[in-house]
Amino acid sequence: MKNILLVLTLAFVHQAQAVVDATGMVTGCFYASDAANDGCYNVNEPYGCSCTKPEVLGSAALCVEKYKDQLATNDNSDAQLQEAWSNVLHMICFDSDHVDAGNYQAVLKQAQEEQWPMDVTEQLAEEASLAAVAFWKNQHTSKMFAWGIMIYFAALVAVSAFVRAVFFVNSRLGRALVYSPYLNKPRGYVSMPPTIGSKRAIPWNIGPFTLGSVLQRGQTIILLGYLVLIIVSYTTAYPLNSDNMRLPTNSAQWTKYLGDRAGIIAVMHLPLVVLFSGRNNILSWATSWSFDFLNVLHRWTARGMWVSAVIHAGVFTHLNRENYPDYQKMPFFMYALSAVSILSAVLFFSMYSLRHAFYEFFSYTHFVLVLVFLVMVHQHVKELRFTNWVYVAVGFWAFDRLMRVLRILWAGVWLTGKFTIDNGAVKVTLRSNRPLNLKPGSYVFLHVPRAGLFQSHPFSVCEAKPNNTFTLVIKPMKGMTNRLEQYVRRRGELFQDLRVWIDGTYGHTAPVEDYDNVLVIAGGVGVTGLYGYLETLKLFTSPTGELVQSSQRRKNVQFIWAVHSHKNITWANIEPLLNHGIEVQIYVTNVAENSNINEKQALARATGIPEDIIHYSGRPDLDSTISSWVQAPGSAAILTCGPPAMNDACRNIVARNLRTCKNTISYYEESFAW
């Protein structure tokens, strides 16, 4: 692994080698000048007096001038020496307050004019340079390891982007590449099932504490690769040397270099963490990675950054334990302490149980704390020349926010939505000022200022209609959706007009039209995420459909919908699906078969749904249905969107069948994980 990282970063190493050598030499002369002046500079104290005393600075400049040909192996031009001198003042001294201290030629000229003594012998300079080179080598190696982590994720993006491009050019070829029957067993055993047990969407609990959801095995494998890189980064390639005059023991060297490496890796994590968190980023567009998977990467890289920051802070707190009270007075240290504390608070409030129990509190605190954290990190690293990583992270964040605003402006500022209570849900009819490119699987973030000015939630587009009109069906939970339902109920009107903002659309569309058999399984309000696909599939099922009459083969489509109450059936328009040859089976799970017959008949008349397709007892037999479906001749796609238990059951059944099935089988799951 280490050799791979070295090869991948060879270009960076070659380009920077001259600067590294010159910087090591300048650092060595600082070390030697310090030693020749009774050890004024303390290895663990950032603001050593060696960095501010004119005679020590001058002695270091004279050392560089005298020994530059012996100690440095590459270009020693004035430009290289000036860059090296500036690097040292920032990295070792955290900049200097002395006049012209940052100008190597000015310091050298002053030292020569005032004839300051230069008591640095060639042997001392060589010994000090060895220690300096080790310091800079660890800095450079640490950056390479951090780059290796970014290259790892970039490779994942490249592979996914290639597959995405193949699907874009020819979806059938993409299906053959990804969902080939030859890959059924690996998918059934390795990528699809939960890492342990049978729960993926259902959160795991230990007593009263909810730990969160288990990842799919494929996701776990990706994160294990990341974990291996982190472990390798912290356990290998330390430039330990028994002749190091600054850190005489291997233990002292390893401790100091570990702290430096952890800090570098932590700050270089920032762009990754922010990039994975954005709604609008090139990763989602290029790879079709789901909102759920990007959230997984965001959380785990944030945890990796936190571990690195804690190691960095812990090591330097340990190294400075003897003069800790003085260290606390330094702004540099206080910014670091604040950053680590804030990051710890962010991770604490992001715990699954707290996030779901107090989502609005989590949302507000997350936003504010992250902004303060970025400011603290910037102040901590600004003298170390690592601020570029903060700027990149802020750039990703600003781009995401700008795109959200532009999406809202595109849809129209202060649109009016028609809200109505529809049998346990809030139905919203919206019309945007401009087309939103609505497709099956699309979702939007809806802002309703009346229910929460700074709150927005994602909702699947249920039905797309002409003239940029579409509908959402919102199942009230807690927070904004509950306030919204209560407000509409209190008004007591059939329709309630409310001002809204629409941020969207987002999401990716599954190519269901490429399959011979399509099984659509919805639970409750999950029908909203799948109804668009059923609207599309109507064109392939009706004997009179244009696509059926063309070269496209007529498709076998079945829709299974489980609802809690028979009144929920009004959430989606089922009659057109039946008229176009789609087989529909509806299961009402909390009504007995022998319930009020008149009520059933009234429901059938109101919805146009035959009584014989509505089952009033039990739940759908997903196991037998899916198992028989995947064994049918031709290719098959299974789409699900429902409660966690239903999604888990469908995924596990499909995974089990993949291990023995010889057909082309694709599984698509619509879900949101916060």
Automatic annotation (TrEMBL):
Its EC number is 1.16.1.9. It catalyses: 2 a Fe(II)-siderophore + NADP(+) + H(+) = 2 a Fe(III)-siderophore + NADPH. It is found in: Cell membrane. The keyword Transmembrane helix applies. One of its GO terms (biological process) is iron ion transport. Residues 1-18 form the signal peptide. GO terms for cellular component: plasma membrane. Keywords: Cell membrane, Electron transport, FAD, Flavoprotein, Glycoprotein, Ion transport, Membrane, Oxidoreductase, Signal, Transmembrane, Transmembrane helix, Transport. PANTHER family: FERRIC REDUCTASE TRANSMEMBRANE COMPONENT 3-RELATED, FERRIC/CUPRIC REDUCTASE TRANSMEMBRANE COMPONENT. Belongs to the ferric reductase (FRE) family. This is ferric-chelate reductase (NADPH). It comes from Tortispora caseinolytica NRRL Y-17796.
